[in-house]
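Q: Entry one of two.
A:
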Amino acid sequence: MSAKDNLEEKLEGLGQAIGSDRSLIQTVMSRINARTTAGFSRIERRFTMSRLMKLAAAAAIIIVALLGVRFLDKSLSTTYAFDQTVEAVKNVRFMHVVQRDETGQIEDERWIEIGPDGFQVRYRQDNPPNRLIVEDGQTVSVYYKDKNSAILYDPKDEQYQWIGNLRVALNELAGQASMVIEKNVDYWGRKAHHVRWLTLNQDCYIDPETKLPIAMAGYQISYEDPPEGIFDIVIPEGVVVVDKRPGAPPVEEPEWMKIKDNNAKIAQQNFDEARMMSAAGEYQKAAELFKNVVEIQPGSNWAWFWLGKAHYELGEYDSAIYEFSKVIEILTKSFKVVPHYCHLARGLAYAAKGMKDMARRDFETALPVMIDALRNIKGATLFDYADDPLYKDLPEDKRPTADQSLAMMINRLRLITGQNFGYDPSKTAAENEQAIAAWEDWFKSLGQIKFSPDAELVPIPAAPSQQ
């Protein structure tokens, strides 16, 4: 029996009748998608990014997560001014970043030197036992020990980063928001402020004295000076060197490298086309293409997610549950991130199968972040992204406005809870404030979830440019 078959058998054994009209349940995600795209246009352009641009984009997403957030334990929360961390980071020159596996062994270790302007100057990343990356300020070396090969790049063409321009990005956030956190928790034997960064639903720990992050995204962070020579590029004798820097003499690439580059190109092309197909409602074609991507790149969480969305829309709920579970597994194990948007999607798939208890568990996992996003709308970003595979391609002025994101979140809450507290974009701010407060009061009182696929949805307001 395959792992997928085994998982499906276990899930089926846990199922209970939900007592809802199955045809209505099947319309839930399509209704969310239809409402999501109403009121603002999509820009359909192909997603083409160099590796450097991808890394910069990933860094930007992480930094966006530092906007104002709230820690979800209502009894322990307090305010923390993020400006203190912004100021503290200005004095940082070196960062030592370590991620460990479940046994405590180091699986990713990075040293980063940050220049006076906030940009990365030098970098070292060791992924034992097979890969070592070093940027010495002029050259990037990627040493694949298992392939006995090293590739040399110009940093302008290929650069590896953890956060990128840390100081500049943090400075842009100064004064914009504060965070609500739990103070002075025990973290690996030391006191730290525990912060929930809502946009990525990511936990962070901040040193109360230095105000510097000491852990985030599953990594532990320190700021000591590195060992001498840590940023030196050293290539052992006998290693095959492929020099891709401008002006280097041409060299035959190893076969494994040709295959790797070709697979990456195929995966990117399939991913781009699959997103277009999914956005156009061509779910069968999208599923085929997304499946190609995860076969080549099994760690691609968004390919797994949108593969699950495509199978959901096709009524193939067992496959959707398996694929959403893969996303949860990848993000919780590798990045220590709880993908609340994916728990929402998997909960809808469970509901479509009549698995009431499993659906409720997923909805309850997603619910705190969804409620919190009513006041901290940045917390809706990944939910909006998950509903629109073309979201990343949209320029900022074409993405959902704060009012649109809020209305879409209200609709998600109405569908999974059965509650309706009167929010309507056409009402006054005071009336909608009462509705949001009612949602919060309901959540605090541990209100019961009643999945309601036929819930009344609010209209999505038009963007200002369309009014």
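Q: Entry two of two.
A:
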Amino acid sequence: MNGGSQSLSLGEAASRFLVSLPPEAREISQQEVYRFARWYGWERPLAELTAPDIANYAERLSLSDADYTKKLELIRAFLIYAKKEGWSKTNLAIHLRIKKVKSSSRSSPGRGLPEAISLTQQGYAELEAELAALRDKRPQAIEEMRRAAADKDFRENAPLEAAREQRGQLEGRIRELEETLKLATTIDDKQGGTSKVGVGDSIILCDLASGEELRYMLVNPREVDPTRGKLSSASPIGKAIIGRGQGEVVEVTAPAGKLRYQIKQIEH
């Protein structure tokens, strides 16, 4: 790693990475990659990022978003590129580990009925479609396990282990979706009567430090999709803006310091 790479700031590295992407991929990645850079400090040297920093970022996402895999993949691609370009000495991407949420953490015996889940109508329909698609994949997953198991050398049967893991992830996601849809109630997109930010609203925020405008739709953590601007109501920004009104300024605490946003527009 040369001297110039050692002093490369996180913001500059993020910008160079985005420029390297095709236009469509750049549009998908920009918001999350820039959020990562702002979280740890736009001017902070990328070379100062540590494995615990990256692990903590993954943990922060896992605590706020039930479905946060897409976010991690976008940041992982950035960190892999940084290593390839020699901007960091190690591949920090390996520390972005997906945390599995145990079903027991969602509801505990003796604590009453499970908590209701509020979803947008679009989000409910998308989860239904995902569930149907995953159920259709079951026969293929079973067949892949059968073919892998046909190899009698079980000592180092990597394909069998991979097939088992894939099947386990498939079944786990199916159970999660079934549970979510069973408990879900949909939000009426036309309901009004309040000028405050709530789940299902589309919001335009202005980053007061950079002047950048950020467009989000505030959703239940189970609907999160960073590629489409769907922000979790349980994320740090989501918690800061929910219940607040247009024109208000909110603060979010990040390792880089206080991030300040003004709520420019709310669409119910």
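A: Comment on entry two: The longest strand covers residues 257-267. Helices lie at 3-6, 10-19, 23-40, 51-64, 69-84, 121-149, 158-183, 236-241.
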